[in-house]
Amino acid sequence: MKWFWNCAGVSIVVALGLGCPPPPDGAVAVEDVSPVSDSNGQPQDRPAEMIAAEQTTSAPAAKVATPAVPPAAPPAARPQPSSQDILAQGKSAYAAADYGRAEECFRLAIEMDPTLAPAHQGLGLVLRKQGRLDESLASSRQALRLEPSYAEAIANIGNIQYRKGEYDNALSQLDRALEFDPEYAEGHLTRGVILFAMGELEPAVVAYRRSIALDPSVTMAHSNLGIVLDVLGKNAEAIEAFREAVRIDPAFAAGYNGLGKTLWQAGKWPEAKEAMLAAVRLEPTFAVAHLNLVSAHFELGEFAEAWKHVHIARELGASPEQDLLEALSAIMPDPASGGAVAKPVISDPPAKEQGPTEMPADKNSQE
After folding, report:
1. DSSP states along 229-250
2. Residues with Cβ within 8 Å of residue 87, at least 6 apart in sequence
3. Which end of the chain offers a freer environment for a tag, N or C, measured as fewer CB atoms within 10 Å?
4. Lowest mean per-residue pLDDT among 74-88, 147-161, 193-207
């Protein structure tokens, strides 16, 4: 029975309030001290004390001048973002998989400051993500010219060489990157991917474990470790690696597929099937998981369900092997074919077991 792996990569508003100012210090209210008159308007006799007081107070009071209200201050100028601000926006967009926006931000940051190496490196990662490998290579090389010890830029160059099938050159680049930064977790992870592609399985395990020791939160490191351990026949360790991957990221469909495969090999069939079903619930177009479910349902005697996943896999461009289809047809002919023995559909081969991991814009961008 053939099992399949999945490919895993890797306005500032200024308000001004104006109010009337209070009276100046020392100002007093003016009291009415005009002479007292009788009902005919004639002055009444007053005591000498009152006359004396009148003589001292009857002079007109000085007018208190109200100070003029100062003109309103102009609104504060809106601060202009710096190249570092734009760079941070680009990293955020990259982390959110908004690659168009990330590219715009990185290019603007470079326009503002052509010597900003992380902007060139961020642009290189975005271009690689879009499959523009030669442009990506040029951007990372520019970052390296600006900062010759820039480990992330060296690693990205190695990643591109890996994608081009230049494994030896790619491994040399990763080794060089890790000389500059031995604690670069993503570098160890990518190095493990390259070693796996070269068939160096035990060194790949060492690289993945080193990456996990430096940063246990990276899902792909656990998943890739599970793949290599499974190939080495270390089933129990592989199961634990996949369990940790889906514990860190419960939405990681490839991790559930890997967990299902290794559980199946351990004879834990119902649990294996549930893990595979979780994979297709999370990612309904996951053709490899549907192929694995054909085998799982067949072995459990759930033939109608097996046929259901045969048809879904075919719609996604994949098909089980002929011997499995013939065995399934012998027990339960395809309900959709009127009882005829099913024939395989010619399609592209399943994706490779594993691809390179994706690296963040810099080693701190996942914090």
Report:
1. HHHTT-HHHHHHHHHHHHHH-T
2. 105, 106, 109, 116, 118, 119, 122
3. C
4. 74-88
Residue 5 is predicted with a pLDDT of 62
pTM given for the model:
0.71
- Structure letter (DSSP) for residue 254: H
Q: Per DSSP, which regions of the chain are E strands? A: none
- Only one residue has tokens 């975005």, namely 126
- Give the pLDDT mean for 328-332: 93
306-312, Cβ contacts within 8 angstroms, sequence gap of 24 or more? 307/332, 307/334, 307/335, 307/336, 310/334, 310/342, 311/336, 312/280
List, for residues 254-266, the tens digit of each pLDDT value. Answer: 999 999 999 999 9
Give the C-alpha separation, 119 to 137, whole Å: 14
User: What domains can you pick out in the chain, each with its CATH number?
Assistant: 80-148 (1.25.40.10), 284-350 (no CATH)
| Residues whose CB falls within 8 Å of the CB of residue 111, separated by 6 or more in sequence, listed in order | none
Token pair in block for residue 11 = 């306005």
Q: Is the dihedral of CA 277, 281, 283, 285 positive or negative?
A: positive
| Range name among 45-49, 94-98, 308-312, 363-367 with the lowest pLDDT average | 363-367
